[in-house]
Amino acid sequence: MDTAGKLEAVEQYLLELATQRQLSPHTILAYRRDLAELAALTGAAGWDTVVHADIRRLASKLHAQDLNPRSIARRLSCWRGFFGWLARSTQLAANPVDGVRPPKRARSLPKALSVDDAVHLVSTPSHAHSNPEPADLCNRAMFELMYSSGLRVSELAGLDVAYRKADPSAGAAASLGWIDLDAKEVVVTGKGGKMRKVPAGGHAIEALAAWLAVRPSPSDGSAALFVSVRGARISPRVIQTRLKQHALRVGTTVNVHPHVLRHSFASHVLQSSGDLRAVQEMLGHASITSTQVYTALDFQHLAAAYDKAHPRAKSK
């Protein structure tokens, strides 16, 4: 079978994906590219002659070309779907991609700021005037609380000033998260609907008190703790944008997003306490495995301290 004949089958498959499964044009384009690559890699061999060993060889070839494991996994997934379609529409004996696994992805470490950089980021005002605007106080409270309590940005955005019961007549649901200034803690509902309490540090409490003194009443009738300049509950996207702009203003040299503060919180608490279980509970991780990645960051911190301080750490 020539390449043109093989690509004709690909176009029939893509047409079905577009019309019946209604995949996006972007996804169809990616599939077309991956299947065209497969047609070229298999040469003159017809689709019905491609076997398991051929796919394994192609996957190994892609890996040898330094293609990252995620990209190889995407190609295999695309190819598997195509051959599955061929098996349903032709006399294809078996799906040759079944059982072929991509190379394992190296687990990347989360990016965390140093203690000094994190403190500088959340404590340095981004305004140059002595009388900060409400938006400045709102930012300071949000950033201090994110770093102080390791909150996800969605958890931060969902906080209310205090717990509010559900009011069906007003269409208001019960609070999913709120602050308790007296107890110096924040209650949030994380992934899987799991609720947890996390301590809030003194600096975060002070920043929250300053914000609450000027916080306007939410225009949407909610009890939202953090509101935008228009008075509506602030969105995670706005928080992300404000944090990035603030980091640029105060001279932070790395790309900062809300999860960097969460990673920094976890890393710094672990460095100080060594209590992995406590960090797991404060982060709201269902499994300790998710938290163990921070032990690698902790080791990096210790290794850096050793290299800097030990008289026999560096070779001549």
UniProtKB/TrEMBL annotation:
Residues 108-307 form the Tyr recombinase domain. Pfam families: Phage_int_SAM_1, Phage_integrase. Transmembrane segments: none annotated. It is found in: Cytoplasm. It comes from the Bacteria. The keyword Cell inner membrane does not apply. CDD domains: INT_XerDC_C. PROSITE patterns: CB (PS51900), TYR_RECOMBINASE (PS51898). Keywords: Cell cycle, Cell division, Chromosome partition, Cytoplasm, DNA integration, DNA recombination, DNA-binding. The active site is at R152, K191, H259, R262, H285, Y294. Residues 4-87 form the Core-binding (CB) domain. SUPFAM superfamilies: DNA breaking-rejoining enzymes, lambda integrase-like, N-terminal domain. Forms a cyclic heterotetrameric complex composed of two molecules of XerC and two molecules of XerD. Site-specific tyrosine recombinase, which acts by catalyzing the cutting and rejoining of the recombining DNA molecules. The XerC-XerD complex is essential to convert dimers of the bacterial chromosome into monomers to permit their segregation at cell division. It also contributes to the segregational stability of plasmids. Belongs to the 'phage' integrase family. XerC subfamily. This is Tyrosine recombinase XerC. It comes from Massilia agrisoli.
